[in-house]
């Protein structure tokens, strides 16, 4: 059980990091700012 | 031994002959642009001092010497538009569409053959290799009858063109004259290659000869694709002319005429579309055979065939929207007005139908996959989750088909209090729609992944982590797609448009990473039981037929849209349509016409299948290679 | 319905007679009662199916052009036929059912296509290499009417607007609303009797004029004839402003009318000649010849400023739009002539005062809260859209009703409207204007 939670947490970290990266990089490539709303 | 070498020799000669046929048109073409350029210069020299008339290319903006005659100014009358008691345009529409359906089918099937034959050669499993080989052979057999029909329909098409639109056809053929003979030669080359490929199948079964046979299929496809690209150059020229001046006079550079603004996007879009269409037709064929077969063995074979055809078709269906996006972008870049007519103006309702159809295609695909899990033992564990997938698909679909703005009457405008509906209008924006379609595609990917691991349990040491990771990855992908869709509402338009790229990237990440990860995990996996080919529900076969019919319909629809966006131009901005049929039909009329074309095509091709089955009955059936279903791991499963 | 049945019968009587013949033949030839019953039943189904099929074909044939919305019913009928046949002819069952599914899909999609609103692209505008110089005065006047109002005979309808966009401000008939600019009814006569003799016109002495622009071009002089007066008014609206119609606050020194030969309207000289000819002809006056009119314009518009007659490029049905939404927002404001009446922060030249200042980011929320507000908008964009599309829903205090044309809902594309709404909703009082996108 504990192992599953451990795996889950690792997966979430990897996935969130990956998708954030995707969002950021692909917006950056187009010369746009993904964080627009938060910087405002 | 001597016999074999002689066979080798012959087959190499045949291959060389094919390559020669392939190159022949290019060799023939070489002098023709040269003469095209020389002829006027010689003329000019003869006139001595008479100035050579120059024209400016409407698209490339280069100067060139006028070679051809200007586009004829047509008049409504028997000379330019002869009439035969029926709307000429509808007749031509019919002839064109039928030729196109058969043509796409005939071009797509050899590509399938090539892929499947290659898979057969590469597979180490002997029995499976034989089955693949047999399948490829079956495919090409289907396409052979269709091939001659295509040629006949092409003849009918040219005849229709010549009788109903003589002035227009005369102009087009005068422009394309330098490549006409290439087209004809390509066609001969294609026929020759196809027949050698087909009849040499049995003789070139083993070893080195098989490789030669395989390379023949490559050549066959290269010729076929070139042929299609040449045919596309005509419609490309009609939509976005180049290589002529403002009056439509040919300026001597045939490459400009062929390589118009929309040529390449059209080529890519058509190639992918043909493949998806070919997959649909073959899947429908398999479904027909499945439903008509009397023995379990036949059912198993055709179930398998239907699955492979469907999988190949869907594999090309997934990139199709992206190719369509490219084409659309090029249309906007070429003439903004054209893009607006398509997406927001006269033809916008047709795009609503298209959105509906994309939804139908993906829904049927998913439905088929869920049904297909029924033939695997162990897939029950996924069955209870399917309802959630249905929910996701339905939500994505509903958002996806909500229109943004439409052409409205003032009364409607007033009733709604503006161009957008106060509530639903919020879903009609691109931000939400992109979210919708990406949710649909991601769900389809998820269905595929479940299907692939249906009867297997991973045995790799990190299986548990892998499973959790895949689950989390999909969940995060959904969250990311939906988050980006919502986020789009809060940021200005110029930033918002960029969000579609990470959205698509998310979907594609799911597709590639999850497929890859899944196959790694399933390597050497424990099987809960074999895939019981043939034990699929009858309904699933109707889903295949629905997929095929819907795809055919969509092809007709998109072709109609592409063609009618020229409005009242034969050749956009060069040659006007002055016939009584220069207006655009209503949505309903177009829908009826497309239905008629689709049904005619299917009835005729069912007839072709039926003819094929008659022939097959007469010939003693070759012992089926390997008993289908007994193979431990048909490659079709991943 | 009745005639369709007759037609179906007349078309398919041979096939049905054959089936009936077979039916009778079975009655006679088959002795086994069970087999006889089965055969009779099957033939009977066959007859019904054949009838349905012919009925469907008759429907298709009859309604192919007229009531094409009825065509999908044919497909539904054939679908039903296929499935019924499949039930009783089991050896062809698979084929029939497949056919049935296909017909069903087609019927659904065609029905869907027919259920959607039907938009038909009208005939293209007639291709005419318009040669204005070779026309009779009447033909020329008709072209003029088209340029002003968008069609022949539309001059009597309030709210019709053509390429020239004149009716956005000018009235052309007695009693038509014309508060922003003089009503042009009777202009040829008035020009001669009132305008040219008006002391403020300073006929022949442009230097004495008290306007922001004294002459159309250096040395152009003033008008001396009726036609020259009209030509000057088109090419240099500022040169003489009819009392009371100047830009608010300019004391009639400056006009709100754009120069007609300049963008965004850019009428060519021949087009202007057509417009002027209409002004004479419709009042039964003898117009000056085409060449004479052109000459008057050549006096006031220097060679370099003359717009080339547009390469006769009929842009399809969309050309009736003032703006199609592909332009940047400032051009949309210019093309729709919003700037003539409204002050729009951030839009160069938009300094009109006939209508309220468009700071909708600030104004709209207040207006919606106004107890006098009877509209349906709940948000700023909705309010702006409502005000553009249906201006009389709420009229800002201190401004007259019915001054703003009610045609923008039809004359602007959805895209253009959206850009306008996007822009205006970002304009706030006291804040720097938004960027033009």
Structure description:
The complex is a heterotrimer of chains A (40), B (638) and C (437). Chain A is 80% helix and 0% strand. The termini of chain A are far apart. The model of chain A has no long low-confidence stretch (mean pLDDT 87). Chain A contains two helices and no strands. Chain A has one domain. With 638 residues, chain B is mainly α. Chain B has a domain at 377-530. Chain B has helices at 2-29, 31-47, 88-122, 126-164, 166-175, 177-199, 207-239, 254-258, 263-292, 296-317, 320-334, 336-343, 348-372, 380-383, 386-401, 410-416, 430-452, 463-487, 493-496, 500-521, 538-564, 587-618, and strands at 54-56, 63-65, 456-457, 526-527, 569-571, 575-576. Chain B has a two-stranded antiparallel sheet with strand order 1-2. Chain B has a two-stranded antiparallel ribbon with strand order 3-4. Chain B has a two-stranded antiparallel sheet with strand order 5-6. In chain B, α11 packs across α12 (336-343). Chain B is globular. The model of chain B is unreliable at 32-49 and 619-638 (pLDDT under 50). Chain C has 437 residues and is mainly α. Chain C has three domains: 2-115, no CATH class; 132-310, no CATH class; 319-426, Cytochrome c-like domain (Cytochrome Bc1 Complex, Chain D, domain 2, Orthogonal Bundle), CATH 1.10.760. Chain C has helices at 2-29, 33-62, 71-88, 93-115, 137-149, 187-195, 226-235, 269-281, 290-300, 329-335, 338-341, 360-369, 380-389, 408-411, 414-426. In chain C, α3 (71-88) runs antiparallel to α4 and α13 (380-389) crosses α15 (414-426). Mean pLDDT of chain C is 80; it is low at 310-319. Classes of the chains: A mainly alpha (40), B mainly alpha (638), C mainly alpha (437). Chains in contact: A-B, B-C. Chains B and C meet through α9, α12, α13, α16 and α21 of B and α3, α4, α13 and α15 of C.
Task: Tag the structure with descriptive keywords.
heterotrimer; B: 638 residues; mainly alpha; two-stranded antiparallel sheet; globular; C: 437 residues; Cytochrome Bc1 Complex, Chain D, domain 2; 3 domains; 15 helices; elongated
